[in-house]
Amino acid sequence: MNTALITGASRGLGRALARELARDGWRLVVDARDAAALSAAARDIGGDVTAVTGDVTDPAHRADLVRAVDGGLDLLVNNASTLGPTPMHRLAALPVTDLADTFATNVLAPLALIQNVLPSLRYRRGAILNITSDAAVENYETWGGYGTSKAALDQLSNVLAAEEPDVAVWWADPGEMNTDMLRASGEDADAAPPPEVAAAALHHLVIDRPPSGRYRAADLAESR
Question: Coiled coil located at which positions (predicted)?
């Protein structure tokens, strides 16, 4: 049985992708900070799901996730993310301490978790899916802090792909989705597609296992 670890799975893309993999019979380890929301998500996802409540920036929680995987890992999905402070600031007014917190969640925690599980992924020739954003490559006003963190995650993934030839490394832009995160940014989330659309595209990425690289959910959907 394949095993996947998905962070930030209580809602949005993480929850939708977990449902996709559960239907394929994957064993899942999922996390989120809100225990009640994560418990509800685990019931919705169905199948063999282990829910571990905690914050990915906490080393003790990451150790709990590694213990929960127990038996080997085939896929790590670094989906947990933060916008940073809202309303979102222009760079001229963005407190550096807030940016440091954003990097802690969006860059440092994913790298730390990757380091924790790499031996298992190497052994099983598994895969890493890092969720990025078009904000990493576009100059959207007030998105500088979040976008910079995602650009760092992009380059981290790019170098990791070169360093780990036995592990598939994908960094994927899901596009706009009708999620609480997009709504918190002040954008019109109701006009965006549901996260299930991007999840279906990323599901194909996992199934097809293309070469390491940066992918867009919209392109993956068009290629089907």
Answer: none
